[in-house]
Amino acid sequence: MTDTTMTADPPALASAPFTGATLFEPEAAAGDSPAEVTGKAKKPVVEFTLINPNQRWFVIFLLFLFGAILMASIVWSFNAIVEMSSWMAPNDHLRWLPAVFLDMAIIGYSLTLAVFRFRESKRLLERAKAGLPPLTTASGRPKNKIWMTRTGLMVSTGFSVIANATHTLDYWDGDLSTYQSWIGIGLSAAIPVLAFWATEEIIRIAFAGPESDDLTETK
Fold first, then answer.
1. H helices within the chain, ranges in order?
2. From 140, 158, 167, 209, which residue has the greatest number of CB atoms within 10 Å?
3. pTM score
């Protein structure tokens, strides 16, 4: 007796012929000559060359950019302080002195900070070549007095912020009922802060090596 529950074996799948085409070589279409197929398969690929940010021209461009930001802030703050000096100057002939004092203080602290960061970078590199660890305080901070110079720069920048905001507030006669006055005061006060950050970037790019970066100072 034959078992009717048995089923026949499934037919074997015939393998499709491999044409040899890849994702990079287009498959030959009907009617294409061998020369056309070869031309399609050998198209040149143009690769983009990455820019090295450590090249001299790139660093000079960054320094020029941040230097322009810093100088624009100084010019703006100078005029704002001169206008504000009418409240405290003994006469109109001396109104420019507070502006010179404050802006020169910002420039002086910026240059001093650049010198100290350069010395720190050089010292850390020399100790690293000698196999010595960096000098640190008990809290793990670098053993230097850079924080004093940076504090002076921050204080000078803070007074510049107050002068800019006060000058813009005086322009609006103390009326803060419009959004234009709030935006104007905010942007005017932000200019010295952005200049402070520009100063830090200039110093890190041109005067401080990567071994003295703030990211590696504290561990």
1. 34-41, 56-84, 96-129, 146-171, 179-206, 214-217
2. 167
3. 0.63
